[in-house]
Amino acid sequence: MKLSKTNQSAQAAAARISEVAQLLYDKGWAEGGGGNLSVNVSEHYAGIDFDFRTYPVIPIKNTYKHIAGNYIFVSTKGSRMREMAIDPGSNLCLIKVAKSGDGFQVLFEDAENTGIPTSELPSHLAIHNFLAQQGGKERAIVHTHAQKLIALTHNKDFKNNEALNNVLLRMHTETIYFLPNGVGYLGFEVPGSESLAIGTLEALQDHKVVIWEKHGCLAVGADVHQAFDRIDMLDKAAGIYLDCLKAGFKPELLSEAQVSEIKALLNGA
Ligand code: 13P
Ligand code: ZN
After folding, report:
1. What is the gyration radius of the CA atoms in the chain, in angstroms?
2. pLDDT single digits (tens) 101-145
3. pLDDT tens digit string along 22-62?
């Protein structure tokens, strides 16, 4: 995608994507082409004036009427986060969802960019449709291979929402404050599959982050930095847990009373 063809506010959105791409790589969560991200940038394209009628329309299995006509930046399939950090334009596509909501076009796909959207596009489209339907501030989706969160999903004791949240939300003060509803847990699904998209969408009804068994996690946020923060806090909680085990003791965890005190802060007490 030629970012030079986009307007300045869209370029600023791309710049934030490259900042987060660098963070994902520095964290060690983006080996090879691991992870993907997308941002609904429709607000930056209101009144855009270029002729996209010649771009082929690729059908979507579902009809996503809440994002009909929307513009979405999405990472290209196989793109490396460490390269996205330096050159977002070559590692992002701009897609336009058809007015009917059941197809999309990849815009700016020219000789310099043969990129196609991420293999996780089914999840990204379904989630953007849900976020638009909700009408809140959330516009960004980040999927990454957060190492310590993945490690926890190899423990059969954590393969459910309750057990996973009981540890992640009680390891330190931040998670309970910033993610009071905790995380969703999704049992193993094949990467890029419709069933991964369906399960993720279901888990996002009550959560901002979903942990994918033996694969990684996906978070939503007002922008890519907020989605990153949410994953970062959870991965830190998992890290403290694993550090305690490595040091030879079982962590005490925040007590019920301590959790209640933090929750009271949320309620302005
Ligand atoms: P893509 O390169 O197709 O986005 O795949 C990366 C990934 O992490 C799939 O789960
Ligand atoms: Zn992945």
Report:
1. 19
2. 999 999 864 545 567 999 999 999 999 999 999 999 999 999 999
3. 999 999 999 999 999 999 999 988 767 666 777 889 999 99
Alpha-carbon distance 107 to 71, whole Å? 9
Q: What's the CA gap between 15 and 11, in Å, rounded?
A: 6
Give residue 84 CA to ligand 1 midpoint distance, Å. 13
For the question of whether the overall pTM of this predicted structure is more than 0.85, the answer is yes
- The residue with tokens 């009981």 is 166
Query: What one-letter code names the amino acid at 122?
Result: P
What are the E-state strand segments in 20-157?
A: 36-40, 58-59, 71-75, 92-97, 103-107, 140-144
Catalytically annotated residues: 120
Pairing of strands 184-186, 209-212: parallel
Residue nearest to atom 10 of ligand 1 (CA): 191
Sequence letter at residue 127: I
